[in-house]
Design brief:
Elements lengths: L1 E6 L14 H21 L4 E5 L12 E4 L4 H11 L3 E4 L8 H8 L5 E5 L5 E6 L12 H11 L4 E3 L3 H4 L8 H7 L3 H8 L2 E4 L6 E4 L1
Parallel strand pairs: 1-2, 1-4, 2-3, 5-7
Antiparallel strand pairs: 4-6, 5-6, 8-9
Protein backbone atom coordinates (compact mmCIF):
# COMPACT_ATOMS: atom_id res chain seq x y z
CA UNK A 1 0.00 0.00 0.00
CA UNK A 2 1.24 3.44 -0.90
CA UNK A 3 1.31 6.05 1.88
CA UNK A 4 1.34 9.81 1.38
CA UNK A 5 2.01 12.59 3.88
CA UNK A 6 1.12 16.05 2.50
CA UNK A 7 3.33 18.78 3.97
CA UNK A 8 3.18 22.56 3.57
CA UNK A 9 6.88 23.40 3.64
CA UNK A 10 6.41 27.08 2.73
CA UNK A 11 5.28 29.31 5.62
CA UNK A 12 3.63 26.49 7.58
CA UNK A 13 1.18 26.85 10.44
CA UNK A 14 0.46 30.56 10.04
CA UNK A 15 -2.44 30.38 12.51
CA UNK A 16 0.10 29.69 15.26
CA UNK A 17 1.56 33.17 14.69
CA UNK A 18 0.20 34.53 18.02
CA UNK A 19 2.51 32.17 19.93
CA UNK A 20 5.31 31.18 17.51
CA UNK A 21 7.47 33.27 15.18
CA UNK A 22 8.04 32.10 11.56
CA UNK A 23 11.22 30.16 12.32
CA UNK A 24 9.58 28.45 15.29
CA UNK A 25 6.51 27.55 13.26
CA UNK A 26 8.72 25.99 10.59
CA UNK A 27 10.70 24.06 13.19
CA UNK A 28 7.59 22.81 14.98
CA UNK A 29 5.99 21.76 11.69
CA UNK A 30 9.11 19.75 10.81
CA UNK A 31 9.06 18.04 14.22
CA UNK A 32 5.45 16.98 13.67
CA UNK A 33 6.24 15.83 10.13
CA UNK A 34 9.17 13.72 11.31
CA UNK A 35 6.99 12.16 13.99
CA UNK A 36 4.29 11.21 11.46
CA UNK A 37 6.90 9.84 9.02
CA UNK A 38 8.46 7.66 11.73
CA UNK A 39 5.03 6.44 12.83
CA UNK A 40 4.12 5.36 9.30
CA UNK A 41 7.46 3.58 8.96
CA UNK A 42 6.90 1.84 12.31
CA UNK A 43 3.68 0.43 10.83
CA UNK A 44 5.70 -1.21 8.06
CA UNK A 45 5.03 1.27 5.25
CA UNK A 46 7.39 3.45 3.22
CA UNK A 47 5.88 6.94 3.18
CA UNK A 48 6.16 9.54 0.46
CA UNK A 49 6.16 13.11 1.74
CA UNK A 50 4.20 15.25 -0.72
CA UNK A 51 5.83 18.59 -0.04
CA UNK A 52 5.26 22.07 -1.46
CA UNK A 53 9.03 22.76 -1.48
CA UNK A 54 12.22 20.73 -1.03
CA UNK A 55 12.90 19.56 2.52
CA UNK A 56 16.47 20.27 3.56
CA UNK A 57 16.45 18.22 6.75
CA UNK A 58 17.14 14.51 6.25
CA UNK A 59 14.25 12.07 6.55
CA UNK A 60 14.56 8.37 7.41
CA UNK A 61 15.89 6.25 4.56
CA UNK A 62 12.52 4.50 4.17
CA UNK A 63 10.83 7.81 3.29
CA UNK A 64 10.88 9.58 -0.06
CA UNK A 65 9.73 13.02 -1.18
CA UNK A 66 7.75 14.41 -4.09
CA UNK A 67 7.78 18.18 -4.56
CA UNK A 68 4.48 19.60 -5.80
CA UNK A 69 3.57 23.24 -5.20
CA UNK A 70 -0.02 22.84 -6.35
CA UNK A 71 -2.82 23.39 -3.84
CA UNK A 72 -3.42 20.45 -1.52
CA UNK A 73 -6.46 19.06 -3.35
CA UNK A 74 -4.77 19.03 -6.76
CA UNK A 75 -1.51 17.61 -5.43
CA UNK A 76 -3.17 14.72 -3.60
CA UNK A 77 -5.52 13.93 -6.47
CA UNK A 78 -2.60 13.68 -8.87
CA UNK A 79 -1.05 11.06 -6.60
CA UNK A 80 -4.34 9.19 -6.20
CA UNK A 81 -4.64 9.01 -9.95
CA UNK A 82 -1.27 7.30 -10.08
CA UNK A 83 -1.82 4.62 -7.46
CA UNK A 84 -4.51 2.79 -5.48
CA UNK A 85 -4.90 1.69 -2.71
CA UNK A 86 -3.41 4.66 -0.90
CA UNK A 87 -3.13 5.83 2.71
CA UNK A 88 -3.02 9.60 3.21
CA UNK A 89 -2.08 11.04 6.61
CA UNK A 90 -1.66 14.73 7.39
CA UNK A 91 1.68 15.94 8.74
CA UNK A 92 0.33 17.75 11.82
CA UNK A 93 -0.94 14.83 13.93
CA UNK A 94 1.40 14.71 16.93
CA UNK A 95 -0.68 12.13 18.82
CA UNK A 96 -0.72 9.72 15.86
CA UNK A 97 0.43 6.15 16.59
CA UNK A 98 1.20 3.11 14.44
CA UNK A 99 -1.86 1.32 15.87
CA UNK A 100 -4.03 4.01 14.27
CA UNK A 101 -2.87 2.88 10.83
CA UNK A 102 -4.27 -0.56 11.54
CA UNK A 103 -7.67 1.03 12.16
CA UNK A 104 -7.45 2.78 8.79
CA UNK A 105 -6.31 -0.13 6.64
CA UNK A 106 -7.83 -3.21 8.35
CA UNK A 107 -11.37 -2.76 7.05
CA UNK A 108 -13.27 -3.94 4.00
CA UNK A 109 -14.53 -0.45 3.18
CA UNK A 110 -13.52 1.24 -0.06
CA UNK A 111 -12.83 4.42 1.91
CA UNK A 112 -11.86 4.49 5.58
CA UNK A 113 -11.69 8.05 6.87
CA UNK A 114 -10.65 9.78 10.08
CA UNK A 115 -12.26 13.21 10.56
CA UNK A 116 -10.67 16.10 12.37
CA UNK A 117 -12.41 17.84 15.26
CA UNK A 118 -13.35 20.78 13.05
CA UNK A 119 -14.85 18.71 10.24
CA UNK A 120 -11.72 18.31 8.15
CA UNK A 121 -10.09 15.10 6.98
CA UNK A 122 -6.95 14.12 8.87
CA UNK A 123 -6.35 10.68 7.38
CA UNK A 124 -7.95 8.21 5.02
CA UNK A 125 -7.31 4.96 3.20
CA UNK A 126 -8.86 4.55 -0.22
CA UNK A 127 -9.25 1.43 -2.31
CA UNK A 128 -11.67 3.12 -4.71
CA UNK A 129 -9.91 4.04 -7.97
CA UNK A 130 -12.49 6.74 -8.76
CA UNK A 131 -12.26 8.52 -5.39
CA UNK A 132 -10.83 12.02 -5.41
CA UNK A 133 -10.39 14.53 -2.59
CA UNK A 134 -11.73 18.02 -2.00
CA UNK A 135 -10.13 19.64 1.04
CA UNK A 136 -12.22 22.82 1.07
CA UNK A 137 -14.64 23.47 3.94
CA UNK A 138 -16.05 20.50 5.87
CA UNK A 139 -14.03 18.03 3.84
CA UNK A 140 -15.02 14.99 5.91
CA UNK A 141 -18.65 15.37 4.85
CA UNK A 142 -17.60 16.19 1.29
CA UNK A 143 -15.42 13.09 1.10
CA UNK A 144 -18.23 10.87 2.35
CA UNK A 145 -20.47 12.33 -0.36
CA UNK A 146 -17.81 11.95 -3.05
CA UNK A 147 -17.32 8.31 -2.07
CA UNK A 148 -21.07 7.68 -2.23
CA UNK A 149 -21.26 9.32 -5.66
CA UNK A 150 -18.63 6.93 -7.02
CA UNK A 151 -20.28 3.90 -5.43
CA UNK A 152 -17.66 3.39 -2.73
CA UNK A 153 -18.41 2.08 0.74
CA UNK A 154 -17.30 4.26 3.67
CA UNK A 155 -16.21 3.54 7.23
CA UNK A 156 -15.38 6.29 9.75
CA UNK A 157 -12.60 5.90 12.32
CA UNK A 158 -13.53 7.72 15.53
CA UNK A 159 -10.14 8.41 17.12
CA UNK A 160 -9.04 11.28 19.35
CA UNK A 161 -5.44 10.79 18.26
CA UNK A 162 -6.32 11.02 14.58
CA UNK A 163 -8.79 13.84 15.18
CA UNK A 164 -6.22 16.08 16.88
CA UNK A 165 -4.46 18.20 14.29
CA UNK A 166 -2.54 21.34 15.23
CA UNK A 167 -3.70 24.59 13.66
CA UNK A 168 -4.58 27.04 16.44
CA UNK A 169 -2.74 27.98 19.66
CA UNK A 170 -5.49 26.28 21.70
CA UNK A 171 -4.62 22.98 19.99
CA UNK A 172 -1.23 22.97 21.68
CA UNK A 173 -2.89 22.10 24.99
CA UNK A 174 -3.86 18.72 23.55
CA UNK A 175 -0.20 17.97 22.85
CA UNK A 176 0.83 18.91 26.39
CA UNK A 177 -2.00 16.88 27.94
CA UNK A 178 -2.00 13.76 25.79
CA UNK A 179 1.32 13.76 23.94
CA UNK A 180 4.46 11.87 24.90
CA UNK A 181 6.61 12.30 21.80
CA UNK A 182 8.83 14.81 20.00
CA UNK A 183 6.15 17.47 19.54
CA UNK A 184 5.46 17.65 23.26
CA UNK A 185 9.19 17.72 24.01
CA UNK A 186 9.64 20.59 21.54
CA UNK A 187 6.87 22.63 23.16
CA UNK A 188 8.21 22.04 26.67
CA UNK A 189 11.73 23.01 25.57
CA UNK A 190 10.26 26.17 24.02
CA UNK A 191 8.75 27.14 27.38
CA UNK A 192 5.12 26.13 26.90
CA UNK A 193 3.04 24.86 29.80
CA UNK A 194 -0.62 24.32 30.55
CA UNK A 195 -2.64 27.31 31.72
CA UNK A 196 -5.84 26.70 33.73
CA UNK A 197 -6.09 30.19 35.15
CA UNK A 198 -9.46 31.11 33.63
CA UNK A 199 -11.10 27.77 34.25
CA UNK A 200 -10.39 26.46 30.78
CA UNK A 201 -7.25 24.63 29.78
CA UNK A 202 -4.95 26.58 27.49
CA UNK A 203 -1.24 27.17 27.13
CA UNK A 204 1.13 29.87 28.22
CA UNK A 205 4.78 30.45 27.54
CA UNK A 206 7.30 31.19 30.24
Amino acid sequence: MRSLIPFAATEPKTRLAPVLDPDERAAFARVMLSSVVETVIAAGLEPTVLTTAPITEPLPAAASTVVDDQPLTAAVNEQLAADSPTLVVMADLPLFRAADIHDLVATDADLTIAPGLGGGTNAFCTRAPAFRVDYHGASYLDHCEIAADCGATVETVDSRRLATDIDEPADLAEVLIHGDGPAREWLVDAGFELDTGDGRVGVRRS
